[in-house]
Amino acid sequence: MKVAFATDDGSRVNAHFGQSPMFAVYNVTKNGGELVELRKLPAVLNQDEAGKIDCRLTAVEDCTLIFIMQIGASAAARVTRRKIMPVKVPFGSPIDEQVKRLVEMLQGKPPMWLAKVLRAEEDTVKGEEGDGTIG
């Protein structure tokens, strides 16, 4: 699964969702995690709150989880509607440590919130591979 981390330096979770200048996107599986890319957001002057959220949603739309230090209520609602789970972590948390913890959770018995996210991701993949019918 793809996982995004709100960051300003590519190595720590140290940004609020709405102000994050970039997202470090990792591919995380039971076997480990690897950096896919750093998605830098364009600096747009005088962008309203909805525009900031839209820009960031577009940047992480293919991700299953997004690790952030903070997220506003309206942004959190919009993120979860896109089937992306926001995960708050302490300011400055090293991304590599968060990836390692996630891999360990996947190798063992994932907590309920992660198991639910993984099931939803599986259902989406199965739906895309099918013939478009339900059931």
TrEMBL record:
The keyword Ribonucleoprotein does not apply. The keyword tRNA processing does not apply. InterPro entries: Di-Nase_FeMo-co_biosynth, DiNase_FeMo-co_biosyn_sf, NifX, NifX-like, NifX/NifY_domain. CDD domains: NifX. Coiled coil: none annotated. One of its GO terms (molecular function) is metal cluster binding. Keywords: Nitrogen fixation. Residues 9-103 form the Dinitrogenase iron-molybdenum cofactor biosynthesis domain. It comes from the Bacteria. GO terms for biological process: nitrogen fixation. SUPFAM superfamilies: Nitrogenase accessory factor-like. Belongs to the NifX/NifY family. NCBIfam families: nifX. This is Nitrogen fixation protein NifX.
